[in-house]
Each structure stands twice: as structure tokens, then as C-alpha cells.
Amino acid sequence: MKAVRGMKDILPVDAARWRYLEETVRTVLASYGYEEIRLPIVEHTDLFRRSIGEETDIVEKEMYTFADRNGDSLSLRPEGTASCVRAGLEHGLFHNQIQRLWYAGPMFRHERPQKGRYRQFHQVGAEAYGMPGADIDAEIICLGARLWRKLGLADIRLEINTLGDREARASYRQALFDYFSAHVDEIDEDSKNRLPGNPLRLLDSKHPAMQDLIGRAPSLIGYLNPESERHFTELRGLLDAVGIRYSVNPRLVRGLDYYNRTVFEWVTQRLGAQGTICAGGRYDGLVEQFGGRPTPAIGFALGLERIVALLEQEAAPEATRPHVYLIAVGEEAAAAALRLAESAREAWPGLRLIANCGGGSFKSQFRRADKSQAHVALILGAEEVRQSTVGIKALEEEGEQMTVAQRDLLDCLGELLARRGILVGPVN
Ligand code: HAM
To answer: Is 200 within 8 Å of 173 (Cβ atoms)?
Structure first.
């Protein structure tokens, strides 16, 4: 049996990095006042159709959609923004309120799998509601920049653009439709199919023969109304003021329909073709579109697989090395071993102690202790049990094994670890 194509196991050797990433993200989100919301993995298909858009790749060909036993059309969520808006409306979170929310979890898209692109992948999303100004746009971008700093990630570029308001988008859409229709002989099959429904998506085409045509396409900047233009100017001023570097990419249109005004992507060259590690933007119309009152909104989602891949390139693996390996030989030792292991864990909540279970000779247990890379071995055999003592040995060194009374174990162990610069915290 194999895992489903495009869906990956995260093995123990990688899990430490995932945990480090998830914990760092949580800390940074909390430092900006974001609160967690947990959302279902399955939603009514209509939710995604109406928000992400009928004419998008996601809805057209990437959703895991099925009929449940009642015949309702349900889908595995391809992203979290739609669910977040649905939940906020359902529970009255938006009414006269400011909300800063975050969620995390698996998303599902039936894309062509490749490095950095999977069918089950993980996002952390952040969504802010009720704030119309460019200040929250700037803040949410600062949050991203802070996260990269905290994670020690370098070489991450910020691209921003504005899509204007609905009217600007509509006029721009028409202009693009006219432009590409006039050059229909120069566009690839895929783009031809997209043209009637979503001409903006043609700007995203990676087709080499299209690049020149795309380069000459009309720019949205010319269609912005003064309000949108002011919003974008203000955002750029705020980013300049806080020292965040960015480039304006007028071709950045995003693959989901709900956006307006600010859109942005954090991109790295270090991951090959799938270099966008975080993407988002404003979606001021979505709450109202779902039947709520007009509620300005902005958010982003991080692609965790891609960030983990960067961490693998840049940062040293997180320490998961055990502090202590407890060797216990013989039936008499089992009870004492269990008791000592429990008391040590009780004393230092941060202690990583692996107790040998399943028996074995001294020799084989020492071998396992070495393999575990623990700093210190504790040794219990029949002799130690009889005398209420325990052996202690520093594993990286040649030195002798010491024997101490079991009641003095915690003091001795604490000292031994501290001498190696390992602080497992105070004894409870
Ligand atoms: P998105 O651009 O579709 O936006 O996805 C956000 C990020 O998720 C991408 O930049 C990428 O890092 C990661 N990602 C997407 N698809 C895959 C995949 N197949 N495999 C691995 N990683 C992937 C959204 O999902 C919006 N909901 C973001 C947002 C939140 N906008 C406003 N609020």
C-alpha cells in the first residue's frame, strides 16, 4: 500500500522542523493579536464555487468533490479563507467588530504534483476583518517580514500589486478581453479556453510564446479609481516608512476571484518553480457576497511545506536529542526504572528521557543508548536495585561510570547535565 499521489507522510525526522515552524508562527501571530479559529476540513462545494470563482483552476479542475450519503455535494477545502468567512458570518463575529483570526491545517487541491506542489498540503492562514485602511495591509505584511526574520530565512522578496475596486476590475477585464481577443492567434490553447471567463488569468500564463504578448498587455494601473490609487499609495508609504522592501508587480493577479485592491506574494528563488511561500490580499466584497454587511477584509496563507523546505536548506535541525537514556537489565530493575524515570520527568518538564523497554543485555541496551544520541545513560541492574543506587555515565566521554544513591539521583543528574550546558529547568 502506498500513500495517495501528492499526499505525504511527515516522518519523525522532519516533524521537529514542522513543530518549530508551527510554534514560531503561533508566537508571531499572537504578538499581533491574532486568535485561533478551527474550521472543518469539509464544506459545501458551493462555498468554494461562489468565493474562489467558477472560472478558476481550483474550482474548475482541482477540487476533491464528492456526494455524501444524503446526496449533498461536499468538497475537501482547497483553502481556508472561504471557510473563515462562512464561520465568521454563521457565528456573528463580524458584526461591528474587528477580528484578527488565524487557522492552520491541511488543504486539498488535485494539482499536478511536483517539488513544492502537493495534493494535500498545509497552510497557516491569517485573516483580519473590519479594517478598511492601508494600515492593516501594512501590518499584515510586517507580520510576514517578522516571521521570516524569526525563522532566520533570508532572500525572500515581497511583490505587491493592486487590483482596484470591482468597477476597475470589470473595466480592466474588458480591456484585457479585447486585447487578447485581438491577438487570438498568438495565444496558447489553455489561454484561449480561459479568455471568455477569466482574461486576468492569462497574465499568469507561463507559456513562453505568450510572454511578449503579456508584456504589452494593458496595465491595471490605468483603470484604478482615485480611492484605490490612494489606498495603494498609502500602503507603499507605510512600507517605506517601516523599511520593508518590495517590488510592484503589475502582473500579479492571484488565482482566486475574491481579491480586490492590495494583493501580495512573498517569493523565494531557492525553491525552483514553486517559490511562493506566502500569498494573500484584500477581499472586501466577500462577506457581503455571502449575505453579511459590507466588511473589509484582508489575509494571507503560508505554504508550510515550502517553508519547511527552506528551513531544511538554511537552519540547523531543531534539537530533539534525548538528554537521558535509562538502561534497566533484569526483572528486578523494571519497577525501580519506571519509578526513577517518572520522578525525573516530574522534576523537569523539559527533560527528554528514553527508558529502555523490551529488555536486552547491558551490551545491547548500551548500543541503543549510543544510537539514541542521549547525553547521559542511567544504569540499573540487579546490584543497583539491591543497594538502592543507580549508575550514571556521560555517553559522549570515555570517563568512568559513577554510582549514586537513588535518592540523590536528581541532584547528580541535574549537575551533570548543567555542566554540559544543558538546562532542563529547575527541579519542581
Ligand atoms: P493561495 O495562493 O492559493 O492562496 O495559497 C497560499 C499558499 O499556499 C501558496 O503561496 C503556497 O505557498 C501554498 N500552496 C498553495 N497550493 C499548494 C500546493 N498544491 N502545494 C503546496 N503548497 C501550496 C490562498 O489559499 C488564499 N486563501 C490566501 C489568502 C488568505 N488570501 C486571503 N486570505
So the answer is: yes
Is residue 45 lining ligand 1, measured as CB closer than 6 Å?
A: no
For the domain bounded by 12-165+225-311, which CATH number is listed? 3.30.930.10
Domain 321-418 belongs in CATH node 3.40.50.800? yes
CATH 3.30.930.10 range(s) for the chain read: 12-165+225-311
Say what the pTM is: 0.86
- For ligand 1, atom 13, which residue shows the shortest CA distance? 303
Check pocket membership of 173 for ligand 1, CB cut-off 6 A: no
C-alpha 300 to ligand 1 mean position (Å): 8
Helices 12-31 & 304-314 angle (0-180, nearest 10):
110
**352-380 pLDDT per residue, tens:** 999 999 999 999 999 999 999 899 999 99
The three three-digit cell numbers of residue 271, written as one number: 525553491
Q: How many CA atoms lie within 13 A of 52 on its CB side?
A: 24
In short, whether 109's Cβ falls inside 6 Å of ligand 1 is yes
